């Protein structure tokens, strides 16, 4: 059974930092690409960052230079380091992987106050 469990969200002031974690189980983590998405009320879920099994990364343009995705295969965990946070980064952040089907975590709320 595939499980993705996010943690690390919270309330932070603009300009601050947070590190999100996503612990995976039930998958061959080391060969899986992992993704972070986010969603605000009334909007579609949007792609934020991705990391392949080889460590290649890709980012939403608006977070480039501020967010860093990384992975620890031994811990089966993917991280999202978020620096210089802005109020517009406020959202529920979801961990995602695409195998034979897509899997999602339940999300962790990030709130950035101005």
How would you describe what is shown here?
It is built from no helices and eleven strands. The protein has 114 residues and is an all-beta fold. The strands form two sheets. Strands 2, 4, 5, 6, 9, 10 and 11 form a seven-stranded mixed beta sheet that branches. Strands 1-3-8-7 form a four-stranded antiparallel beta sheet, with no helix packed on it. A hairpin with a 3-residue loop joins β9 (91-98) and β10 (102-104). The radius of gyration is 13 Å and the shape is globular.
What are the SSEs and their pairings?
Blueprint: E1 3-7, E2 10-13, E3 18-25, E4 34-39, E5 46-51, E6 57-59, E7 67-72, E8 77-82, E9 91-98, E10 102-104, E11 108-113
Parallel strand pairs: 2-11
Antiparallel strand pairs: 1-3, 3-8, 4-5, 4-9, 5-6, 7-8, 9-10, 9-11
What key phrases describe this protein's structure?
114 residues; seven-stranded mixed beta sheet; single chain; mainly beta
């Amino acid at each position: 059974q595939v499980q993705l469990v996010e943690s690390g969200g919270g309330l932070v002031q603009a300009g601050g930092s947070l590190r999100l974690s996503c612990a995976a189980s039930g998958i061959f983590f080391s060969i899986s690409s992992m993704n972070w998405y986010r969603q605000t009320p009334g909007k579609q879920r949007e792609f934020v960052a991705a990391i392949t099994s080889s460590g290649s990364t890709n980012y939403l343009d608006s977070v480039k230079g501020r967010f860093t995705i990384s992975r620890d295969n031994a811990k089966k965990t993917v991280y999202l380091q978020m620096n210089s946070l802005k109020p517009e980064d406020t959202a529920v952040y979801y961990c995602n992987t695409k195998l034979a089907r897509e899997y999602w975590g339940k999300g962790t709320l990030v709130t950035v106050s101005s």
